Amino acid sequence: MLRAPRWPLEQTTDYLFSMIDLHPPLSGMPLAFIAMLSSIELMRARPTWREPLRVARTVALVAVVVSTTLAFFSGYQASSPLGDLSADVQSALGTHHAYGRLLLVNALLMATFAWLKSRAVHGRGVLLFFYLATVITQLGLTLFVGYLGGGLVFTHRLGVIRAP
């Protein structure tokens, strides 16, 4: 009876993570969820829709934060095995990472302002302003970070498997 060779768990996980790049499928999720959250906030402007959309807003907000976090960390995982890069590619990747960090921080601020607004007794209008400002900022940053990531793929051919 033949048996498969047993690899140490360390080598197996290193091999799997070097084979699987989760960033491409995860990077589109923040855009979808922030577009959904923005639409929900626009619909909530109508007073009769405010309460029915409360749960949907909470779910969309959590989805934005979770998907942004996953996309952020999967981007670092995807860029770690790249090796030596030219100066212009390194600069473009650094810019993409920097704006990705800003996107993650904004997502956390957005969730914080939403939570504070839901708990506040006084100053709810100010917190609503900051929450909506971070929603708009999140939408713009998500589009811009996606644009930078697309530039890495289509201009610099990063993450593209080269045919022999």
Describe it:
It is built from 7 helices and no strands. The chain is mainly α and 164 residues long. Helix 6 (87-119) packs antiparallel against helix 7. The radius of gyration is 20 Å and the shape is elongated.
Counted up, domains total 1
So what's the overall shape?
elongated
Quote the distance from N terminus to C terminus.
Answer: 38 Å
What class, by secondary structure content?
Answer: mainly alpha
Oligomer classification:
single chain
**What is the number of helices?**
7
What's the mean pLDDT score?
86
N-to-C SSE string, H for helix and E for strand: HHHHHHH
Rounded to the nearest angstrom, the radius of gyration is: 20 Å
**Would you count the extended β strands for me?**
0
Residue windows where pLDDT falls under 50 for at least 5 positions: none
Helicity range: over 70%
Outline of the structure:
With 164 residues, the protein is mainly α.
Question: Main traits of this protein?
Answer:
7 helices, mainly alpha, 164 residues
